Amino acid sequence: MTEPTVNTPLPAVYVYEKPIRLWHGLNALLILTLILTGYFIAAPLASVGGEASEHFLMGYIRFGHFAAGYLLAIGLLFRLYWAYAGNGYAKEIFQPPLLSKVFWQGVGHEILWYAFLAKEPRKYAGHNPLALLAMHFAFVWGSLFMVITGFALYGEGTGQGSWQYSLFSSWVLPLFGGSQSVHSWHHLVMWLIVCFVLIHIYVAVREDKVSRQSLLSTMVTGWRTFKDDKPLDDVH
Amino acid sequence: MNETFYDVMRRQGITRRSFLKFCSLTAASLGLAPAFAPKIAHAMETKPRIPVLWLHGLECTCCSESFIRSGHPLAKDVILSMLSLDYDDTIMAAAGHNAEAIIDEIVEKYKGNYILAVEGNPPLAEDGMYCIIGGRPFVEQLKYAAESCKAIISWGSCASWGCVQAAKPNPTQATPVHKVPGLADKPIIKVPGCPPIAEVMTAVVAYLLTFDKLPTLDRQGRPQMFYSQRIHDKCYRRPHFDAGQFVEHWDDEAARQGHCLYKMGCKGPTTYNACSTVRWNEGLSFPIQSGHGCIGCSEDGFWDKGSFYERLTDINQFGIEANADTVGGTAAAVVGVGIAAHAGLTALNRAKQPGAER
């Protein structure tokens, strides 16, 4: 890191490239769709009246869930590819430096900051260490878990011989000890993702207000701007 | 060396016409093309009858009860005569030492050439003392008979998964057949269900005996022809599920109309069995048709997955009964309250700092 010029904020850094920003927005929409439709699959809406042939409510809800699930999975594949094709920041959430001492000190400081015990947060162009942990373990692994169990449940409907069944259901169902357990786990991790989303949004808004770098505008433009001239704490 | 199946059937007074009908029926129930009926007939005319040892461990005999009520009388007569049930302690005539001697006799005479059907499972705790047959632990009898058999059929959920006697905390350590340590390495066909459907049982036996090979099994060892689809996939109430028409109470109009039992905890969507196609009692009905949801009796550990009337499994690790919604909803609420409190504190903190820079 070069020493910044005095009294002017650090120059902005281009962190999130356009494909990442588009993926982020689409992904947010998909997750919202999946949570809502998924919840209504598990606990259906009030029954509709009349003849069964007049309605296809559960069918449409399930279609929405499956379509969004497919898009989420394709999006994740793209995101994985972009970790390879994109800039250094695109790799961050897939490989947190878990063996680095500095990283864990950063996590510690971040916890102190959120516990109101540290006066000032550290400054990062990419994710802060605590955010990285949440991104990696709750989001990346959480989404992968949902995609795998999701396809396993979907494969039950498409049936033996379908690629969904062969690739997913055939080993996931016995692993969890049956379809019902897979349903329950898929449902439970949905709640983990709900918690993640709540914290993710709150923290993004809060950090945008009180930390030393931009958050919300970065989500839209990709440029990280800084509020002071002190050096960055992450190295890329 | 022995009579063929056909000889036995003729001796039992079954006409050739009935015999051929049975062959067509078996081909149909196994999902085979019509061309297979003569093949089955040929096999049964030429192959010697294979004896079946039918052992009983910890069980309730519902599998036997189901089996002897095999829906189609023709199929029942034929199968029962073609199965030489040389040993089945529920329905055999012999008793005491004579009965036990039959096992030794079959094991010696038909080494490697008999089918071992197991109903129930062995408890392993206290060296198997919780199930004694003829003065010896059942697990020893099972291992002895398995040693020289051709293949093992695990009848019902007990032999396949463990069922109620293996439900938590499983004090007798009841263990499904395929998990018994030291059991000879033989092919195992699981025919789960509590009990399994009679026609499924007879068809599996017919397949084994006529084709002299195992039916195609899925990854969990169940015959694919009967356990490859869920109750839900072929349920006649499925249109009500897709439409979003559910029974909400046992006595509501939807229940009278025969709407979907999903909200009443029906396990049809998570249960692999043939009830919704083969049905029970000569195809008369099955649980959902009679107005009660499926309880998932052919699934692994169905006793330990919470209420029969709830969709979500209970998560017992939390001490009190809770399911994914209680746990997850509580977590989300805690997070929500936490966020609100944290936001409040943040605002307060900033207000206290005079001239805090933006």
UniProtKB/TrEMBL annotation, chain A:
Location of the protein in the cell: Cell membrane
Metal-binding recorded as keyword: yes
Residue intervals of the Cytochrome b561 bacterial/Ni-hydrogenase domain: 15-222
Annotated membrane topology: Multi-pass membrane protein
Keywords: Cell membrane, Electron transport, Heme, Iron, Membrane, Metal-binding, Transmembrane, Transmembrane helix, Transport
GO cellular component, one term: plasma membrane
GO molecular function: electron transfer activity; heme binding; iron ion binding
Top-level taxonomic group: Bacteria
SUPFAM superfamilies membership: Transmembrane di-heme cytochromes
Family matches, as InterPro entries: Cyt_b561_bac/Ni-Hgenase, Di-haem_cyt_TM, Hydrogenase_cytochrome, Ni-dep_Hydgase_cyt-B
Keyword Repeat belongs to the record: no
Gene3D superfamilies for this protein: Transmembrane di-heme cytochromes, Chain C
Function: Probable b-type cytochrome.
NCBIfam families assigned: CytB-hydogenase
UniProt family annotation: Belongs to the HupC/HyaC/HydC family.
This protein's name: Ni/Fe-hydrogenase, b-type cytochrome subunit
Organism the protein comes from: Methylovulum psychrotolerans
GN (gene name): cybH
UniProtKB/TrEMBL annotation, chain B:
Family per record: Belongs to the [NiFe]/[NiFeSe] hydrogenase small subunit family.
Protein's recorded name: hydrogenase (acceptor)
NCBIfam families assigned to the protein according to its UniProt record, in alphabetical order: hydA (TIGR00391), TAT_signal_seq (TIGR01409)
Taxonomy, superkingdom: Bacteria
Subunit structure: Heterodimer of a large and a small subunit.
Start and end residues of each Cytochrome-c3 hydrogenase C-terminal domain: 227-308
Record: residues binding [4Fe-4S] cluster 2: H232, C235, C260, C266
Catalysed reactions, as listed in the record: H2 + A = AH2
